[in-house]
Write a structure and sequence with these properties.
The structure is a homodimer. By secondary structure, chain A is of the alpha+beta class. Helices cover 41% and strands 18% of the residues of chain A. The first copy, chain A, binds a DNA duplex through helix 3.
Chain lengths: 221, 221
DNA sequence: ATAAATTTTTAGATAACTCTAAAAATTTAT
DNA sequence: ATAAATTTTTAGAGTTATCTAAAAATTTAT
């Protein structure tokens, strides 16, 4: 069975909203995420329910079935593998790949994605540090990942991901060379606004509380 | 301006049919090529005409405008560049790539195709030997390309393309290792059925008239 | 030149996805 | 507990691309 691009986008949206909120996702929330109207969402959700991709109770919100989850995870796998390709092989910056990957993720061919995966040496994380589910739908796990804001002063670690993936934020990080894989050390926190000093590339920079709350760090043991 | 996948497929079909027939393309012909109904073609062709992509006169057939040609050529460029990628980088056989390239060709990003082109070292021909138009729409030319059936006995050359791209034919060639780049020499023709003996890979094989009529050869000077 | 065959277009319908406006249900606030 | 605010659904309609069946135009054959 194959699904339309729109159906796949709904499933992906429901998957990510459910993972954020841990409860049945409301029509309104989906509408906002997909930039469409709640009434359109109701229609589509009924359709997905008829195909046994979601569980839907009027006025009660939506959750994915096993079948719906599998499709959503496959699309996420496609998306992230394509992002790796765009960055590693074609030299895109990490803030430039999202839109193109949104298109590429819907290409219908399991074989293609498996071959891409192999071509890229089975990457476990995408350029934003998000885990790439394997063929069976299992997401790689990161051990001691915490937010930069949770590190103590003097602690060290490696940037392994971002919580916020907006282009504004990614461009900011690019400019400050706060990219995936970089080693950092927290040297100081300013009580006034909770901004922090960081050593990166052997230089000290100050970053705001907001930035600290959106950078995912793997602690140096 | 951006166009739907269907619109792009119509333009591509009209382009290739016009290049084959050298006259305005009929509704019926397009319908056959796209496996749809003539009435659907009429509808779509009107729509394309309103967008100034084709010139259309009732009962007289269709030709592409400059604008329509540009789009068709871009899609062909995309298709052929993706085919090179699939074969060269992912190890697909040349008879396995068409369907996937039909999907990939519609990805909307000029930048992406330019980067792919560069990543693949600006290939001039696709895995079937068909020329890849450059960014400006110019197709590479092949000098002394002839059909294998036009070679004289004792003449030598290199396989540079196929006229027929059906999977049946490509699989046949794959099996006989008659692939792009191979050097061949005609040693004999059997008057009875016009089949010919060929030296390839230092071995002699006999191939039918039909095969000779569909292999494009660049003569050894 | 006219009838028959073929091609092409028109008319009317359907399916997928979207929208606006109004009605119904639920939640929140007093 | 009930009124007000909010959320969600329904009803009806528009768009894109498709189809079938019938009508119109063109081509072919005699």
């Amino acid at each position: 069975m194959s699904y339309t691009r729109t159906e796949e986008n709904y499933l992906k949206a429901i998957f990510s909203l459910y993972n954020k909120e841990n409860k049945a996702v409301s029509t309104n929330t989906i509408a906002k995420k997909l930039k469409t109207k709640p009434s359109s969402v109701t229609d589509m959700v009924k359709k997905l329910s008829n195909k046994d991709l979601v569980k839907y109770e009027k006025y009660k919100g939506v959750t994915l079935t096993k079948k719906g989850t599998d499709i959503a995870v496959t699309i996420i796998r496609n998306h992230r593998i394509w992002e790796v390709f765009l960055v590693e092989k074609l030299g895109y910056k990490w803030d430039e790949v999202h839109e193109i990957a949104e298109q590429l993720e819907h290409i219908k061919s399991d074989e293609l994605i498996d071959r891409m995966d192999e071509f890229l040496d089975n990457p476990k994380f995408d350029p934003h540090g998000d885990p790439i589910p394997d063929k069976t739908g299992k997401f790689a796990e990161r051990k001691k990942a915490v937010l930069l804001s949770e590190l103590e002063i003097k602690e060290e670690g490696i940037i392994v991901g971002v919580k916020n993936t907006s282009n504004d934020f990614l461009q900011y990080l690019e400019e400050k060379t706060l990219t995936i894989g970089k080693e950092i050390k927290v040297t100081k926190e300013f009580e006034f606004d909770k901004s922090r000093n960081l050593v990166v590339n052997e230089r000290v920079i100050t970053i705001s509380k907001e930035v600290c709350n959106n950078l995912i760090i793997e602690k140096r043991p």
